[in-house]
TrEMBL record:
UniProt-listed InterPro entries: DUF397
Domain of life: Bacteria
Pfam family, one: DUF397
Domain DUF397: 18-70
The protein, known as: DUF397 domain-containing protein
Length: 81
């Protein structure tokens, strides 16, 4: 249940001053990407670069596990890779 509390806290966090980061490969318009920000002590929040109100909360361990899978070339995490 602790995980659910963390995810809800991430969604409820005030992100008005958050610094969002997106890939350098997000296209010439800069609107073809996911953006991520870190919420200190809780985890990460992903959002769409155009539909910025659509957010996905991730605990620290979830985000790290996903990134490690991408780095390792895990099948299915990156379509076509």
């Amino acid at each position: 249940m602790e995980k659910m509390k963390t995810l809800k806290a991430l969604l409820a966090a005030d992100l008005s001053g958050a610094v969002w980061t997106k890939s350098a490969f997000s296209g010439s318009t800069g609107h073809d990407c996911l953006e991520v920000t870190r919420v200190e002590g809780l985890g990460y929040v992903l959002r769409h670069s155009v539909l910025t109100d659509h957010r996905i909360p991730l605990t620290e361990s979830e985000y790290v596990a996903y990134c490690e899978g991408v780095r390792a070339g895990q099948t299915g995490l990156v379509p076509g890779a």
